[in-house]
Amino acid sequence: MVNITIDGIRLEVPENKNVLDCALDAGIYIPHLCHHPNLKELGSCRMCIVEMEGESEVITSCTLKAKEGLNIQTNSDRIRKLRNLALELLLAGHPEECTTCPKYGNCELQSLIQYIGANNARMKHRSKGFKVEEGNPLIVHDMNRCVLCGRCVRACNELRGVNVLQYQRKDLEDYVGTLHNKLLKDADCRFCTACTEVCPTGTIRDKISVAGAEQKREDVLVPCRYACPAHTNIP
Ligand code: FES
Questions:
Q1: What CATH number has the domain bearing residue 42?
Q2: Where are the beta strands (DSSP E) in the chain?
Q3: What are the pocket residues of ligand 1 if the criterion is a CB atom closer than 6 Å to any ligand atom?
Q4: What is the largest CA-CA distance in the chain?
Q5: Dist. CA 46 → ligand 1 center (Å)
């Protein structure tokens, strides 16, 4: 165990545990999006940035390992400004009409927007123009709503080992798709729906729950155990 300090609060935590988890376990909320407790850290969304004593650069707390004497600030003016900017950039490529999204009210991105208080008014919004895949009975894949957090790719690869969902690039636009852009049903997808369980937005979603039908699924991931704003009202 090692001693660290987060926002002036001293904690004893396991050495090398990621600092975001240490904070969340201690009831200190640090905004996060690409982090999921069942997946390896990616550090892509930049929502969880913190300042570390003695360092001029900010750092993502999900990839920062706890070590003796670590002292971080999670909510300084500088952090709030940079986090706000990072979220605005994410939102510039995300549809603005939340109320028509089937994940409305149960979307981690929406909750983050409310918590951080960001909007993309000063950004030039761009539409990605992806065709929505919904020609199978289980999963809707709408890349227009994706923020490239990579949770679905990691769930598909790390947890299920099937590697169907992968990062792709076309015309300088990164997206999550299948090899050769095959439909899920033609790309060896097992329709385990692990991707829908971890997606924080309305990008990859379960058709059954979207349709409001009774959902029975034995083989799902452990639900997020953290007090994400999507699940609780964080003051
Ligand atoms: Fe740490 Fe996304 S949660 S970078």
A1: 3.10.20.740
A2: 2-6, 9-13, 49-52, 58-60, 71-73, 139-141, 166-170, 173-177, 204-206
A3: 32-35, 43-48, 60, 62
A4: 54
A5: 5
How many distinct structural domains can be found in the chain?
1
In whole angstroms, what separates CA 80 from the centre of its chain?
18
Closest CA to 19 of 55, 199, 180: 55
Which residue is listed with tokens 């155990």? Answer: 225
Atom of ligand 1 nearest to the CA of 32: 3
Q: Which of 24, 42, 226 to mutate to test the pocket of ligand 1 (most atoms within 8 A of CB)?
A: 42
50: left (phi over 0), alpha (psi -120 to 50) or beta: beta
Any domain includes 10: yes
> What was the pLDDT predicted at 209?
63
Q: Which range marks the domain in which residue 17 is found? A: 2-78
Structure token digits, residue 153: 């790719």
| Domain assignment present for 90 | no
Look at residue 225 in the predicted model and tell me its pLDDT: 40
Q: Is residue 149 part of a domain?
A: no
Q: How far is CA 181 from CA 175, 184, 190, in A?
A: 11, 9, 16
Chunk the chain into consecutive blocks of 10 residues (it has 235) and report each block's average pLDDT, rounded to whole numbers: 97 97 96 95 95 92 97 96 92 82 86 84 77 89 93 94 92 89 91 93 82 40 41 40
Residue 100 within a domain: no
